[in-house]
Design a protein that fits this description.
Helices cover about 20% and strands about 30% of the residues. By secondary structure, the protein is α+β, with helices and mostly antiparallel strands. The strands form two sheets. The chain has a four-stranded mixed beta sheet with strand order 3-6-5-4, covered by helices on one side. The protein has a two-stranded antiparallel ribbon with strand order 1-2.
Length: about 120
């Protein structure tokens, strides 16, 4: 327990490189907290515990991608912002309510094909 009486959420994650894509697994509470959702049924969109992530090449590209998604009918969930791990990300929900993260990770640059690379 932290001194203020709140529990600290585990932010452990694991990443698997899968031939051009990366599968990242996070704890449900940590992911909900990162997206600014509580995971409760009252959340709009309802948080299912799953988010798809789209990695881009810059902070500007995060904001541009989220703005494009909004113009196409998505709902802004959390605007792009600097995050604790040193990158920049934001969230939107597509018209069916699926949660998407758009992220820039300076520690895992995109390769020449636009695929995320994992540090060695």
């Amino acid at each position: 327990m932290a001194g203020n009486g709140h529990r600290r959420l585990r932010t452990a994650s694991v990443f698997f490189g899968l031939d051009g894509i990366v599968l990242g697994l996070f704890g449900r509470k940590a992911l909900a907290q990162d997206a600014g959702l509580s995971g409760a049924p009252a959340d709009k969109p309802a948080f299912s515990g799953v988010a798809l992530a789209y990695n881009v090449s810059s902070q500007v590209a995060v904001d541009e991608t989220i703005a494009f998604a909004e113009r196409c009918g998505a709902t802004l969930v959390k605007p792009g912002e600097a995050v604790f791990w040193g990158g920049y990300s934001g969230y939107f929900a597509d018209p069916e309510g699926h949660l998407w993260e758009v992220a820039y990770n300076p520690f895992s640059p995109l390769d020449e094909h636009g695929h995320m690379t994992l540090p060695e």
